[in-house]
Design a protein that fits this description.
With about 170 residues, this protein is of the alpha/beta class. The protein has helices at about 15-30, 40-50, 70-80, 95-100, 115-125, 135-145, 155-170; strands spanning about 10-15, 35-40, 55-60, 85, 105-110, 130.
Length: about 170
């Protein structure tokens, strides 16, 4: 079957309704893609995934509620056909490498050109991984052997989630 008969089904997870609306418009205009579900938090996304099969989950990394890392881990187990693309703001330390270990397939910054976003969705849907050059350069610095480890590397997933919530409340 051709791709036009089976469009790439995308779920958007972002707590900013305006950003989701813009992404819906961009994705719906791309031939062979459709947005089949939207959620403003991870808990809502988990409920929708039970009834809406998706090919791609496009989510913003810093979501309220359940951890994005936890959602990615659950998706890999419960919905192995769905691939996760994460929008990662630059400067989040060890989080991108933890998302890699959790099973995410794509990593972009929220400031990528539209063409790169759409290309990433196609690429990840085909089974490949994609890491935006801005993120890969940061990951290289994180994964390069260093004499000192980050104290965040020693935290569990839950401890890291609590630490990030504390940091966010200080802003």
């Amino acid at each position: 079957m051709s791709q036009s008969q089976n469009p790439i089904r995308v779920m958007l997870i972002d707590d900013y309704q305006l950003l989701r609306a813009g992404l819906v418009k961009l994705i719906q205009e791309e031939q062979g893609m459709e947005v089949v579900a939207q959620a403003d938090c991870i808990e809502e996304a988990m409920l929708q995934l039970e009834n809406s099969p998706v090919d791609i989950v496009l989510m913003h990394l810093k979501q309220p509620g359940l951890s994005s890392i936890e959602l990615t881990q659950r998706l890999v187990v419960d919905h192995p056909e769905a691939r996760v693309i994460v929008m990662i703001p630059i400067g989040l330390g060890v989080l991108p490498s933890r998302m890699l270990r959790a099973g995410a397939s794509g990593y972009i910054t929220p400031c990528v050109p539209v063409a790169e976003l759409l290309w990433t969705i196609h690429l990840v849907h085909s089974g490949q991984r994609y890491i935006s050059p801005r993120i890969s350069s940061k990951l290289e610095k994180i994964t390069a052997p260093e004499p000192r480890k980050s104290p965040f590397d020693l935290l569990s997933e839950r401890e890291l989630q609590v630490a990030l919530m504390l940091i966010d409340s200080q802003k």
